[in-house]
Amino acid sequence: MIHKYKYIILGGGMAGANAATEIRQHDSEGTLLIITKEADKPYHRPPLSKEFWTQADYPKESIYYSINNDKAIDFLMETTVKKINADQLTIEVDNGEVYQYDKLLYALGGAPKWIEGPESDRVFALRTLEDYRGIRQLTDRSKHAIIVGGGWVGAELAAGLKMNDMDVTLVFSNNTLNEKRLPLALAEKFHQRFVDFGVNLINNAKADSYRVVGDKVCLKLEDGRELTTDILILGLGLQPNVDLAKAAGLEVGNGVIANKYLQTSNENIYAAGDVVSYPDLIIGRNRFEHEDQAEHSGQTAGRNMVGMEEVYTHSAPLSYTDVIDISIEGVGEMSRNRDDEIIEEVGNGYIVYYLNQGKPSGILTYNVKVDMDKARDILANPPETPGELHGMLKPL
Ligand SMILES: Cc1cc2nc3c(=O)[nH]c(=O)nc-3n(C[C@H](O)[C@H](O)[C@H](O)COP(=O)(O)OP(=O)(O)OC[C@H]3O[C@@H](n4cnc5c(N)ncnc54)[C@H](O)[C@@H]3O)c2cc1C
């Protein structure tokens, strides 16, 4: 038997939840199914590496999307989508059941990159609530954690675990923490703050593999060194989940390729969130792994699945981190042409303009709040010369 739905959303993450909200907003009747691998209904992921560790009284249940309570939405939980038959407008899940759609959303996010080593309940990547629960359970009865990868999530978790009385070692491949994203002078400040906070930093080090010995994990670095710990957390970045799209014949590059309506190369299938590569109106075709992008692209895709033909205009999505006493926000591309950047000191903070061929391609703030919509305007309508950027953004 084939189960029929007007809308099917693959992936119960942040993009999927936002698409479902918009579909219900504009079509209260059409049958809607969300399929997700997870045991938890859609929730907001950013607190998993922040408030869950830094605020003892944080209301954890507040992370769930309210759409979860909509009785008119069906969920298939702990279910893995195995195949999309784009010609027949059907999908197949792991128990062999087949579901038919009129419009499909591909919002499968990405899979954490891994290194060689056996499956173990002491080795994690922090992607899901389930991962958080596993890490929390172990940290409550362990002393030492190693985190590999100095990106936002790795750094946030390192600080968070430290605040929870763990000894924390953060292993990362560059010389200075976050030097790829921040101008060197700010990366050095960021790095030093972690040193002062008591996080043990191991720089210029790449993880090779790990082995589990009793209740310890031994991490082997590429230079041959071995580090032993109670918990290993890998923050090595994400691989977009494109395999099902590729097998279904959709156009795939660095992500699932979509047009300005977030429609894939198949007219009945839309894509949103971390997995979609789309033509950003300000910075060109791109794929982002940020909350702002997941939520807005999900919303536009949802409206277009209902038939609204709306161009995705939420360009240069915002990324942010809040760690120790540092707050960073950015729009656009933060790493291109890093020798070419303007740093403005504003009070106790900084505004950074990243330049690409003389034009700003990204704007980042460090411990200062500015109007990020104005920052987007600057990227969309840059001044004639980079010198004119000075003073364009004022602290709020
Ligand atoms: C700990 C953490 C902290 C973060 N902090 C920030 C932050 O501070 N700022 C920021 O901008 N962004 C942050 N992010 C990134 C942000 O959460 C992501 O950009 C966002 O979740 C992407 O949404 P998505 O719906 O595309 O993917 P996801 O939310 O990952 O959802 C994808 C869903 O698809 C499911 N799935 C995958 N394959 C299958 C399959 N075959 N069958 C069924 N289901 C499947 C997955 O299980 C998952 O539920 C953070 C992410 C994490 C993990």
UniProtKB/TrEMBL annotation:
Entry coiled-coil feature ranges: none
Keywords, comma-separated and alphabetical: FAD, Flavoprotein, Oxidoreductase
Gene3D superfamilies, A to Z: 3.30.390.30, FAD/NAD(P)-binding domain (3.50.50.60)
Superkingdom in the source lineage: Bacteria
Keyword Oxidoreductase: yes
InterPro entries: FAD-oxidoreductase/Apoptosis, FAD/NAD-bd_sf, FAD/NAD-binding_dom, FAD/NAD-linked_Rdtase_dimer_sf
Transmembrane spans: none
Domain FAD/NAD(P)-binding, first and last residues per copy: 5-285
Pfam families: Pyr_redox_2 (PF07992)
SUPFAM superfamilies: FAD/NAD(P)-binding domain, FAD/NAD-linked reductases, dimerisation (C-terminal) domain
Keyword Flavoprotein recorded: yes
Protein name: NAD(P)/FAD-dependent oxidoreductase
Source species: Fundicoccus culcitae
